């Protein structure tokens, strides 16, 4: 998506923009945005927009045809210049959770052939759903330990785009079908060298060492081959 600043710079916390449209007084589209919208298992950002000294809290961000920001009160109008601030504590924790989830997914696949069927990141804990025939908590703990070994290697995370045709030649590049709408001609690739590479639209840390320590919270059976685990970061 054009003007989605979070796609190229996950560390951008403040930016200026022009209001392009306002619907029902509080759904605001901006000329550019660093607010991450709900999607790909990563929750939306929150934060604020200031216009002429008046502060509007950003309470929800969703991606439709454009990124829509729900603000706490009416007052903004098309053409207004706004100074925006992302709630960095919330966003950064989601970034750390997101990169951690990629590492855990990759270890589950490499070690157990388990395919991730969904992730839902959270502030307190994050959820990973995967397919595996037998659920053994000790083994899952071992995979978390192995994930922490990757974290400690302090690997630089690479983000770049590839033409769709070229990207699709990479085995396993599409982890979740939802990240690749058919009209997309370029795919954004997130690569954690030696461990994971996939098309992904989320925000990620620059280096795996930023994740800190991953802790296993719980594991659950969710039907015949479906398993669920929750992890958190210390
Ligand atoms: Zn992801």
Explain what you see.
There is one protein chain. The protein is α+β, with helices and mostly antiparallel strands and 234 residues long. Helix content is 21%, strand content 36%. The chain contains four helices and 13 strands. It has helices at residues 5-8, 88-112, 137-152, 164-167, and strands spanning 14-23, 27-30, 47-51, 54-63, 67-71, 81-86, 115-120, 126-131, 158-163, 186-192, 196-199, 214-221, 226-233. Strands 1-2-5-4-3-6 form a six-stranded antiparallel beta barrel. Strands 7-8-13-12 form a four-stranded antiparallel beta sheet, with helices on one face. β3 (47-51) and β4 (54-63) form a beta hairpin. The longest helix has 25 residues, at 88-112. The radius of gyration is 19 Å and the shape is elongated. The two termini are 33 Å apart.
Task: Detail the topology: elements first, then pairings.
Layout: H1 5-8, E1 14-23, E2 27-30, E3 47-51, E4 54-63, E5 67-71, E6 81-86, H2 88-112, E7 115-120, E8 126-131, H3 137-152, E9 158-163, H4 164-167, E10 186-192, E11 196-199, E12 214-221, E13 226-233
Antiparallel strand pairs: 1-2, 1-6, 2-5, 3-4, 3-6, 4-5, 7-8, 8-13, 9-10, 10-11, 12-13
Helix pairs in contact: 2-3
The structure holds zinc ion.
Zinc ion (ZN) is lined by residues 40, 98, 102, 200, 202.
């Amino acid at each position: 998506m054009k003007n989605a600043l979070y796609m190229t710079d996950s560390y951008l916390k403040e930016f200026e923009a022009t209001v392009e449209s306002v619907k029902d007084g509080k759904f605001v589209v901006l000329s550019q945005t660093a607010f991450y919208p709900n999607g790909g298992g990563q929750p939306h950002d929150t934060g604020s927009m200031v216009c002429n000294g008046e502060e509007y809290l950003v309470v929800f961000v969703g991606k439709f045809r454009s990124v829509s920001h729900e603000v706490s009160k009416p007052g903004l109008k098309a053409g207004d210049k706004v100074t925006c601030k992302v709630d960095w504590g919330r966003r950064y924790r989601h970034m750390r959770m997101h990169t951690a989830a990629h590492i855990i997914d990759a270890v589950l696949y490499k070690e157990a052939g388990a395919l991730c069927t969904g992730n839902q990141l959270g502030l307190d804990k994050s959820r990973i759903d995967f397919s595996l025939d037998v659920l053994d908590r000790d083994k899952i703990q071992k995979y978390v330990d192995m994930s922490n070994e990757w974290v400690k290697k302090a690997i630089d995370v690479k983000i770049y785009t590839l033409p769709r045709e070229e990207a699709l030649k990479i085995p396993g590049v599409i982890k979740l079908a939802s990240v690749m709408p058919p009209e997309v001609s370029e795919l954004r690739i997130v690569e954690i060298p030696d461990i994971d590479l996939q098309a992904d639209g989320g925000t990620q840390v620059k280096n795996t060492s930023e994740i800190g320590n991953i802790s296993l919270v719980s594991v659950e059976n969710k039907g015949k081959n479906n398993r669920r685990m929750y992890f958190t970061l210390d």
